[in-house]
Amino acid sequence: MRLDSFDLNLLVAFDVLLQERNVTRAAERLSVTQSAMSASLKRLRESFQDDILTQHGKRMIPTPFAMAMHPDIAAKISELRSLIARKGRFDPQRSDRRFRIAASDYITTVLLTPLLQELETLAPSVSFEFTLPGPASQVRLANGELDLLLTPRGFAHPDHPLEAIFEEQHVVVACANGPLATSPLDPSTFARAGHVGVSISGRYTFAEEWLRAHGIERRIEVHVPSFVQAPFMVSGTSRLCVMHERLARFMAPRLALEVMPMPFPIPAMEEIMQFHATRQEDPGLSWLREQIAHRAASDAA
């Protein structure tokens, strides 16, 4: 295969096909027809002399060759995008860029939702694709599949730059009409009560990790995969839940919850935003980071 006769746009199709493992979804991601994406897959197969994706029942499975090539191709695409963006000027009023962000429903609720309300006017054609963070987020960041990863500092990638967003405290919530909301919460009452626990994509949260590391046991009656789901499992019950203070105060009036201090101190959690090292000078991403930082500072004021 000669590079000067190879259509480099096929590498973008290769990257998205390997991410989606589905021709229809890959076509939607790139805003092309399904037949056009099928044609790109055919050309990729001819160029690489490999099936790239093979049908297995209703699923498409990447070949060993495609799996081995994907990280390098994704990284090169990220570098090229960064190089092109560095030479351009970002105009939020005219841009139709799509930002890909991994963020929990907690940070989406307390920070990104109000930010997007502002950006609807500031950047009317800019769009966003949100995914939940998980064990694969660091790999996706390193491969250039994410523009930003919003996460506690302890879950950040060790090799890429990051910026602090804010510090978050943890509190306990209980049903405002329940027996646990009528008196100060002490450690023994905390330990005896039923709790709602949270893990995101199979991974313990900052608070869960800290409680486990310090040998603080709780009786978990309900386990949920979402920060926003958790307070709904407290409302109208005698359960407790350890929550981020910003989210707890947002949800409390909506669900008739009482917000109480922890019965023992937990260190503040530092929420950060992280981006690939090659995108440090990306004008569009710099603009977005500034918007996030400004929104966070406004909330703290």
TrEMBL record:
One of its GO terms (molecular function) is DNA-binding transcription factor activity. Residues 6-63 form the HTH lysR-type domain. The keyword NADP does not apply. It holds the Pfam family HTH_1. InterPro entries: LysR-type_TF, LysR_HTH_N, LysR_subst-bd, WH-like_DNA-bd_sf, WH_DNA-bd_sf. Keywords: DNA-binding, Transcription, Transcription regulation. Belongs to the LysR transcriptional regulatory family. This is HTH lysR-type domain-containing protein. It comes from Aurantiacibacter luteus.
